[in-house]
Amino acid sequence: MKRLWRRVVPFLLKLVVGCYAFWIGSLVLFRWVTPPTTGVHLQRRVESWFKKGPYEKRFTPVPMAKISPHLRHAVVAAEDTHFYEHWGLDFGAMADAAQQATEKKRRLRGASTLTQQLVKNLFFTTHANPVRKVVEWTLAPVADFVLGKERILELYLNLIEWGPGVYGAEAASRYHYHAPAASMSREQAARLAACIPAPRRRRPASMNMYGPIIENRMRQMGY
Asked: What is 36-220's CATH topology?
């Protein structure tokens, strides 16, 4: 056993160091380059192999200037109200989520910042596990430092899932509204942002309750 551990431990350490080197190196590259695919994109492609019907990937990255400011504001208001204040991790939101989970005796959920969600989308899948969360927590501050807030938001808006095979603001706007992302109205943006927690089930047209809530939060934040 001792001999085995002497071999396994160094191997695991090298594996961890190698993974972090890859992740951090990728973040440096993504400061200038939008990746052609992500961990979640690949996950959905593999899942499509085991399901009936065709799978069409809709993905058209665009610069921030071609995304409606309403959508940028709606996503921040819906997913991470302290986005411009924290450095990748929102400890206040994490504490609140932990308290609510304890009081209601439920599994801890939520409190992920946009930065953490971006890390998950880039390198992992939607399947939750403790190891992934630990890596998210450790990489989020690095991503915040390397990429900066505006690039994080630009990548997030261009990469996240917004429907079956629909990724990014431009593809989502054309899929749901038949118009470019730059032309999205305030109400449309709020409804689209409301779909983020369950993008393959929710549709903007049915977000009659959550859409107005996000619009109200946008007003409270000065958007």
From this structure: Penicillin binding protein transpeptidase fold (1.10.3810)
